[in-house]
Amino acid sequence: MSPRARMLAGFTLANLAILLAAFLLYSNRSAAPPLIQGVLLPEARAVADFSLLSHHNEPFTNADLLGRWHLVSYGFTTCPDICPTTLSRLVNVSRELEKRGHSDLNVLFYTVDHRRDTVAQMASYVPYFHPDYIGLTHVDDAANNHLPFEQSLGIVAQLIPNFSADAAGDPNDYQVSHGVTLFLINPEGKLQAIFEPGRADPGMPDFEPERVLEDYLAIRDYLG
User: Fold this and answer.
1) Which residues are CB-contacts of 125 (< 8 A; sequence separation ≥ 6)?
2) Is 104 helix (H, G, I), strand (E, B) or coil?
3) Element containing residue 177 per DSSP (H, E)
């Protein structure tokens, strides 16, 4: 066989290997991505390096996201309605997953009010819903190591002072406003999907446990 023929044969075999790998990769996937109540990212998005504190008073970093699926909810512990309601809905999801033999979904609750939601406060709040859920907070520091987590996921929140900008007041006298979404992080520690709530009552966003459950399982099945 001539050098040119050997080269062409090598290219052919390499292309066949690539096609075979692609076939094996996608053969277990559906013909089309599942339709979920939210957004399934075509390509998972990396989460920038961050450092938080768990309610166990232990560091929580990107490394803690590896190896399991994580569902991130966010809010604050003194939230009167949406936050506890969402966590209660997720408890129903967790229980149903356990019944079906799935134990690799961790739920994280990230506070957007770290001044009030200290480690101690989170430790008294989050386990009330489920002993395996993990509360995440942080302390003020110059590095702002929490910001990459918020920015990578797209967490939206605002602290609104209860006094005018030109008046002196207690810096801890404020209200908290935040979005209502759930973020699904895959076992590689990357953002895979964003779940949006429905609206059970006018103006009141809410997550249906059955829908969250089915969307999560559909994504898992699709990705293999």
Assistant:
1) 55, 77, 117, 135
2) coil
3) strand 174-178
Strand partners, 75: 111
Task: Go through the chain and tell me how many residues it has.
Answer: 224
CB–CB of 135/111 below 8 Å?
Answer: yes
54 in the same domain as 15: no
* Helix H or strand E encompassing 106: strand 105-111
* Predicted local confidence at residue 102, as pLDDT: 86
Q: Are residues 3 and 114 in the same domain?
A: no
Phi, psi of 185 (to 5 degrees): -110, 130
Identify the CA nearest to 184 among candidates 39, 31, 28. 39
What pTM does this model have? 0.82
Q: Give the pLDDT confidence of 10-28 residue by residue, as tens digits.
A: 333 333 343 344 344 444 5
CATH number at residue 155: 3.40.30.10
183 & 166 share domain: yes
Verify that 27 and 136 share a domain, yes or no. Answer: no
For residue 1, the enclosing domain spans 1-31
Write the pLDDT tens digit of every residue in 91-126. Answer: 999 999 999 988 889 999 999 999 999 999 999 999
| pLDDT at residue 5, as a whole number | 41
Any alpha helices (H) in 104-160, and if so which ranges? Answer: 119-129, 147-153
